[in-house]
Structure formats: structure tokens, C-alpha cells
């Protein structure tokens, strides 16, 4: 017997490593590049419009680049072959880990923050996953976390909300209330699904078990039961993520911050009022009087007053002695006259 034909004339399929409702995943060998890849082969074909939509979405996914995103290498949207060729992640799924028992709150918060960061990146590029679930979360051997199958459910349904059989796209266990009720499905649906995935990881049980219809309708009847024993940050994040109103759920980026402990709450965005003019911020102060001239004049008067008091307290100056006028001839001839004048002064 000869070897099986190559998928797309290039990929040799090996063991099947996964299976879903619409496709099977195989380990495959890229014979052109000689590398091992993962090939997701869809079982049912699609019409021409569906195949075109598939090709458009596949190109968009292939153009994304994020450490937590499984890379799309190639695809085919032919009438006979509908498949995606992706990076092969060696490891296990989150579903495998949860089967062994509940994860610690710290581990769940760490995984959740990484997955929310991936969702934020993909949402920024206009893609809604629509099928976030534990089996789509891959944990590599080096403990890296990946979110697989971005947009695959939407691609397979050719952008319709229901398949040809009338079944809602997505896994009923993790659907958001708006998905179940047939409302508009957007980014908040992924946030809700991630919240249920993390809740299941930390409790070890499925929040909405049962058949597809039973599980889907259950979330319309009651809200998820989030244990009060969880750490405050994780409890708060799960409560917000699984809210029934999609408009009130945090964005994926906000979830990443909440779960990583970079934020403790989600505060509604409020439009800031325009700043008031500087002249209206404080009442205009009254003009201050210039006291300098008054101080100078007061000091001058004080100096004059002190000078006047000192002047009045001083004793009167002594009168100069009444000396006789100089008279007579100089020399010995004047001596008798000078002696007579001296005696007269002494007597006085």
C-alpha cells in the first residue's frame, strides 16, 4: 500500500491529537519545510460565500502575532479541502489539568491574566473568539499559556450565528447569556466565557453542567456561584467578568490588569469637566494697602522727637570769660599795667 495522499499536496497527516464538533486536529509533517505542524481539518464543506469568509478570517488570524497566540501558518478554502495549518504546541490543555483537581487561586489568576491579555490583542484586531473553553487553552511544556482556535467557530460557520443545523455556535457550557438568547455577540462574550473557564479551574467543577440546551438556559435563570473564600482580587474579577449585562463587563485588557493585581476595581469612565479659567479658581484677593510710606514717615517723626528731647535735656553752654582788651605797649613797659588788670580779674 502506498502512503496516504498529502493534504493540500504538502502536509502528511499523522496521529489525531484532538477532535471537536466540526473538525479533527492531526499532528502533521510539512513536507516542504520539514517541520511538524498541527492540521485542523473540517469535516463539512461550505458554500462559495462561506469559503471566501473562511479565507478572509484565516488571513486575518495569520497576520496576528502574540506570545500567547497559536500561529496560523497556512489554510485551504477549496471546495474539497477546508483546513488550517497551525503551530504545534507540545503539552497539555487546561481541561487536562482541571481533571486532576482544582488549581490554586494564584495559578488561576496567573493563567487568566495571560489569556485576557491574548484576548485583548485579538479584540483590538476585530476578532471575537466565541468559543473560549478549557480544551482551547494550551499549556506548553515550558509552562507557556496559549489560546487556540481563534475565530475557528466563526470561520466554520461562515460568519453566521448558527450552523446549517440550527445549533448555536460555541460550547453551551461556556456561552454568554447574549449568545444563548440570540443577541448580538461581541467581545464581552469572550470575557464571560473566560470568567466561567477560570471559575471552573479554581473550583474543579463545571458551573453549568448538563445537556446543551439545559446548560445554555441555566445561566438565564441564575448567576454563577463564585465562592466567597476566594482571594478578594480573584473574586472581584470573576464577579465582574460573569455579569449578565455585557455592557457592564470589563474589557479583556481590564481583566488582565484585575487578575494580575495591577488594578483593584473597574471604575466607570467619566468625562472630565473642562478646566475653569485660572481667574475663577480662587476669589480675587483685595488689594493690599502700601504701608511703606506710612512707616517711613512715622520713623522720621520718631527720630525728630528723640532729637528734640535730647536737645532740651542738654545743659546750657558756659559763657566765655570777659578778658580785658589788649592794650599798651608790648614788652617790659606793659608789665605793670598787665598786673593791675590781673588783680582786677581776681577781685571780681
From TrEMBL:
Residues reported to bind ATP: 40
UniProt KW Lipid metabolism keyword: no
A Pfam family of this chain: Pkinase
Keyword Transmembrane helix listed: yes
Protein keywords: ATP-binding, Kinase, Membrane, Nucleotide-binding, Serine/threonine-protein kinase, Transferase, Transmembrane, Transmembrane helix
Domain Protein kinase: 11-270
Entry's transmembrane regions: 294-314
Class in the EC hierarchy, top level: transferase
Single GO molecular function: ATP binding
N-terminal signal peptide: none
Stored SMART domains: S_TKc (SM00220)
Enzyme Commission no: 2.7.11.1
Protein name: non-specific serine/threonine protein kinase
Lineage: Bacteria, Bacillati, Actinomycetota, Actinomycetes, Pseudonocardiales
Amino acid at each position: 500500500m502506498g502512503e496516504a495522499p498529502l493534504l493540500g499536496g504538502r502536509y502528511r497527516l499523522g496521529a489525531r491529537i484532538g477532535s471537536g464538533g466540526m473538525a479533527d486536529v492531526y499532528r502533521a509533517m510539512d513536507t516542504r519545510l520539514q517541520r511538524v505542524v498541527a492540521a485542523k481539518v473540517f469535516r463539512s464543506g461550505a458554500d462559495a460565500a462561506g469559503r471566501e469568509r473562511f479565507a478572509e478570517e484565516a488571513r486575518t488570524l495569520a497576520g496576528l502575532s502574540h506570545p500567547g497566540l497559536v500561529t496560523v501558518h497556512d489554510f485551504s478554502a477549496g471546495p474539497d479541502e477546508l483546513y488550517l495549518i497551525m503551530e504545534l504546541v507540545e503539552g497539555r490543555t487546561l481541561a487536562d489539568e482541571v481533571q486532576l483537581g482544582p488549581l490554586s487561586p494564584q495559578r488561576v489568576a496567573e493563567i487568566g491574566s495571560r489569556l485576557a491579555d491574548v484576548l485583548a490583542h485579538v479584540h483590538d484586531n476585530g476578532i471575537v473568539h466565541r468559543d473560549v473553553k478549557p480544551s482551547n487553552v494550551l499549556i506548553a511544556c515550558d509552562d507557556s499559556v496559549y489560546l487556540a482556535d481563534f475565530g475557528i467557530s466563526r470561520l466554520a460557520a461562515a460568519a453566521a450565528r448558527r450552523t446549517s443545523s440550527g445549533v448555536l455556535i460555541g460550547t453551551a457550557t461556556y456561552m454568554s447569556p447574549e449568545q444563548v438568547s440570540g443577541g448580538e455577540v461581541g467581545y464581552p462574550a469572550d470575557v464571560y466565557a473566560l470568567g466561567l473557564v477560570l471559575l471552573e479551574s479554581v473550583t474543579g467543577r463545571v458551573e453549568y453542567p448538563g445537556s446543551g440546551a439545559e446548560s445554555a438556559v441555566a445561566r438565564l435563570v441564575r448567576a454563577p456561584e463564585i465562592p466567597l473564600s476566594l482571594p478578594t482580587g480573584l473574586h472581584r474579577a470573576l464577579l465582574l467578568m460573569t455579569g449578565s449585562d455585557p455592557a457592564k463587563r470589563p474589557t479583556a485588557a481590564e481583566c488582565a490588569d484585575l487578575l494580575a493585581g495591577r488594578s483593584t476595581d473597574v471604575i466607570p469612565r467619566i468625562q472630565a469637566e473642562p478646566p475653569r479659567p485660572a481667574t475663577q479658581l480662587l476669589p480675587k484677593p483685595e488689594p493690599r494697602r502700601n504701608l511703606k510710606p506710612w512707616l517711613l514717615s512715622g520713623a522720621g517723626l520718631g527720630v525728630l522727637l528723640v532729637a528734640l528731647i535730647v536737645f532740651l535735656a542738654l545743659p546750657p553752654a558756659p559763657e566765655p570769660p570777659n578778658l580785658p582788651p589788649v592794650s599798651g605797649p608790648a614788652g617790659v613797659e606793659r608789665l605793670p599795667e598787665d598786673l593791675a588788670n590781673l588783680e582786677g580779674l581776681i577781685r571780681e
